[in-house]
Amino acid sequence: MAEAGEKETPEQFEKRFSTLVIHGFVSLSTSLGIQSGLFEALIKLKDEERTVKEIADTAGLKERYVKEWLGVMVAADIVDINPETEKYSLPPHRIPFFQSGSSVSDLGAVLTALPIFGGVYQKLLDCLKKDGPRGLSYSEYTDFHSMMSRFSSRWVLNHMVQDFIPSMPQIEEQMKSGIRILDLGCGRGSASLVFAESYPNSTVVGLDFSQEAINYGKERAKEKGLTNVEFVCEDAACISEDWNNTIDYIYTNDVIHDLAHADKILLALNRILKPDGVFSMIDPDCNTKHSENASNDYRSRLYTMSLFHCLPISLFFEGSVGLGTCWGREKATEFLKDAGFRVDSITKPVGSSQAHYMCTKKVK
Ligand SMILES: C[S@@+](CC[C@H](N)C(=O)[O-])C[C@H]1O[C@@H](n2cnc3c(N)ncnc32)[C@H](O)[C@@H]1O
């Protein structure tokens, strides 16, 4: 790696590029291990050394393929091998990164986006062409909502009522006494369900235009016996005038940058929020200018997510503002202000890499 201010040599770039290519290949195999249940099998077998057959049998998979996968994992130092016995183990300190529902990390869930993006690769190539399609519909992405809820529920379950809502003491008090909450673009509803369960005096509306995601939320609410949450399948661009000044708290996680008509929907959110209500917009944390995101590994991942998902699903709709995941603090603030919000603070919630824009209505 070149030192700051130094010119990079071809050899230095080759080294960096080689690492990037290797990590790409290993990521794909790691994702296969998560989806196929191989990591689960290794976790079930504890950190004791096991044969290929024992691991394959525990996962219910073919031994020959499992052997090849273990080859990748050993070469990449993810699974350990005892050279004397040729037996494999997953050391305890790595387990939480591959455990579903882990409170430690959501990296495993992020990795499962790779095959979903792979599934749209050819169609995305067409979108790039001048005469190609505008974008891609959500239905092109197999299993998107399950990946998304795996990804977002770790933070929701471990931080929402533990530290996020308490970081806004006034809202917390109101939620305890009973208010009307909207979780816009709720997906499978992990946040809506936590709000409803934790604040039984409040009523919660989870709204999303995916029928599949809404059905999932409804099922979970029924299983939990929750009567203070309603899941509504609707396009946020069509929120009725009847909702004007009826919502005390609006929550969006990872939604606004995806909206084809974010400008109009922000105006609608302003219209339905009560005059003293609060809007929490949680969205990826970036800067708007590319130059301010330079040499930032995390943001390079966000831009990839944008290129393969957030941007094409937004551009799919006619008249889309096409924000992309990395629209950034500057543009987001501008959109919020234009919709009539005052951005009271932009902070990073505990345990999250996102930005929380806490907004109230501008006094007219
Ligand atoms: C990235 S997902 C986030 C889901 C959820 N908030 C979470 O944290 O798991 C964005 C969600 O916005 C929904 N969405 C996008 N455009 C919408 C629109 N115009 N109206 C309603 N929902 C929309 C999608 O269906 C999807 O569930």
UniProtKB/TrEMBL annotation:
Ranges where the Methyltransferase domain occurs: 176-297
Alphabetized SUPFAM superfamilies for the sequence: S-adenosyl-L-methionine-dependent methyltransferases, Winged helix' DNA-binding domain
Domain S-adenosylmethionine-dependent methyltransferase Rv2258c-like winged HTH stretches: 25-95
CDD domains in the record: AdoMet_MTases (cd02440)
InterPro entries: Methyltranfer_dom, SAM-binding_MTase, SAM-dependent_MTases_sf, WH_DNA-bd_sf, WHD_Rv2258c
Entry superkingdom: Eukaryota
Name by which UniProt lists this protein: Methyltransferase domain-containing protein
